[in-house]
Structures are given as C-alpha cells and as structure tokens.
C-alpha cells in the first residue's frame, strides 16, 4: 500500500525522499531525533577513534547522508525554477538537520571523549572542545 509523503511524516514511518518532497522545518527535525537503536556499539577502534566507543557514529553517518540527499533535492529545486519561498524553507530544513547532527556529535564527544579527558587530566582536549563549541554555535 502506497502512502503519500505527508502521511509518512505524520505517522513517523521511515521513508526515502525524492526531489519533489517538501519538508517543513519541523518535518526535517523529525528525521534527526536520536533513537537508542541508532547507536552503534560494535566499532570501538574505527579510524579517528580515541581508544573508546563513539556510540553514535553510524547514526551520524546516516543523518549526514540524509542531509546531503536533502541538499541535493534543494539544488534540483533551484535548477527547476521552483518558488524561492519553497527553496528557502527547504534550506532552513537542511540547516536544522545539520545543526541536529552537530548536537549529536557534541553530546557523544562530551559523554565519551571529555569524560576520558577529565579522568586523564587532559586540559588540551577540554580547550579543543571549547574552541569547537565556539565555532559550532556562531
């Protein structure tokens, strides 16, 4: 049974997006809620790991892929000459998705990297976090 795009959002049903799909900022935000089953605990020593688990790596990668796909859809909207207001709404939705990805990374970093840094009295890691937060929140 096929449901329209709006129905899928209303019922929080996972779905793929097409360039014709239009999201409100609220709908874009719905795609970016953290769910416990998104956590990936099996890859403790992936490239870039600091010797501990980054619980949300898989979820972050999936969210990035969705945001990239959404941004590609916005590019297509511009190419197709879609209404400027619609394009701006979609850009706001992409921005919201990216901000939410940043929040997940930041929370993961604090819960894992910074906890380890405090235990090891690593002031450099805390200074780096402060600089990253300053750049992220601008």
Work out the helicity level: 55-70%
* Largest beta-sheet details: none
Number of helices: 5
Shape: elongated
H/E element sequence: HHHHH
What is the distance, rounded to the nearest whole angstrom, between the alpha carbons of the first and last residues? 45 Å
The tally of strands reads: 0
Report the structural category.
mainly alpha
Rg on CA atoms, Å: 18 Å
Strand content: under 5%
Query: Which consecutive residue ranges, at least 5 long each, have pLDDT under 50?
Result: 31-49
Query: What do the pLDDT scores average to?
Result: 76
Describe the overall structure.
The structure is a single chain. By secondary structure, this protein is an all-alpha fold. The protein is built from 5 helices and no strands. Helix 3 packs antiparallel against helix 4 and helix 4 runs antiparallel to helix 5. The longest helix is centred in the C-terminal third of the chain and has 36 residues. The protein is elongated, with a radius of gyration of 18 Å. The N and C termini lie far apart (45 Å).
Helix/strand layout:
Blueprint: H1 5-10, H2 25-30, H3 57-79, H4 84-119, H5 123-137
Helix pairs in contact: 3-4, 4-5
Q: Concise description?
A:
With 138 residues, this protein is an all-alpha fold.
Sum up the structure in keywords.
single chain; 138 residues; mainly alpha; 62% helix; elongated
